[in-house]
């Protein structure tokens, strides 16, 4: 009788160890089962492959994606020269738990009243998509590049486009935007902005 009870307990433990943790986005999180447990030890949740974190270290990923509800966004200016402008879209995890961001942000320039302005967002693989875990308080960034040189029928005696006051930035695989301040001047070439994927900042 004792052998039957022990066998039943072992079967339950092995079944628990073999259940993979569900991920919210299978394209960003690669889950692997944990090592088998002996009959004398309690089962533990499966571990996952380490991801890069906002602090440049590795950690066990969680299932949640970073959403606008937990992210604070800002646009930071970079170098300028020969009509080119550079900047970064920086997002910081202000939530209470880690989250994962992977891919490209959406971005729409807005005027002071919140009306959309011409925006032609173009993705560049510099760098390309890779999952980044943000523990609370850490950040990720995406590179931005645009021109202030009028093109086509854009005027040369005044700003080529209306200057944006703000921008709506949508985290990867999400639909709700973050409101970020722009204040970096007009974007010529019909609002063309090149954007990279997010990387650990």
Automatic annotation (TrEMBL):
<protein>
    <submittedName>
        <fullName>Uncharacterized protein DUF4232</fullName>
    </submittedName>
</protein>
<keyword id="KW-0732">Signal</keyword>
<feature type="domain" description="DUF4232">
    <location>
        <begin position="66"/>
        <end position="198"/>
    </location>
</feature>
<feature type="region of interest" description="Disordered">
    <location>
        <begin position="27"/>
        <end position="60"/>
    </location>
</feature>
<dbReference type="Pfam" id="PF14016">
    <property type="entry name" value="DUF4232"/>
</dbReference>
<feature type="compositionally biased region" description="Low complexity">
    <location>
        <begin position="27"/>
        <end position="42"/>
    </location>
</feature>
<feature type="signal peptide">
    <location>
        <begin position="1"/>
        <end position="23"/>
    </location>
</feature>
<dbReference type="InterPro" id="IPR025326">
    <property type="entry name" value="DUF4232"/>
</dbReference>
């Amino acid at each position: 009788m004792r052998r039957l009870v022990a066998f039943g307990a072992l079967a339950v433990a092995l079944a628990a160890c073999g259940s993979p943790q569900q991920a919210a986005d299978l394209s960003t999180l690669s889950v692997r089962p944990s090592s088998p447990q002996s009959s004398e030890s309690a089962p533990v949740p499966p571990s996952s492959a380490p991801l890069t974190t906002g602090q440049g270290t590795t950690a066990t990923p969680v299932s949640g994606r970073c959403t606008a509800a937990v992210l604070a966004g800002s646009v930071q200016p970079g170098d300028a020269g020969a009509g080119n402008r550079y900047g970064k879209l920086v997002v910081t995890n202000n939530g209470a738990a880690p989250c994962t961001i992977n891919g490209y942000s959406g971005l729409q320039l807005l005027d002071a009243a919140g009306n959309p302005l011409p925006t032609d967002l173009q993705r560049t693989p510099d760098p390309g998509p890779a999952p980044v875990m943000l523990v609370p308080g850490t950040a990720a960034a995406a590179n931005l590049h645009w021109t202030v040189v009028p093109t086509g029928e854009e005027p040369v005696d005044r700003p080529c486009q209306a200057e944006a006051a703000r921008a709506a930035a949508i985290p990867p695989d999400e639909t709700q935007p973050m409101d970020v301040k722009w204040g970096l001047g007009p974007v010529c070439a019909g609002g063309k902005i090149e954007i990279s994927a997010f990387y650990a900042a």
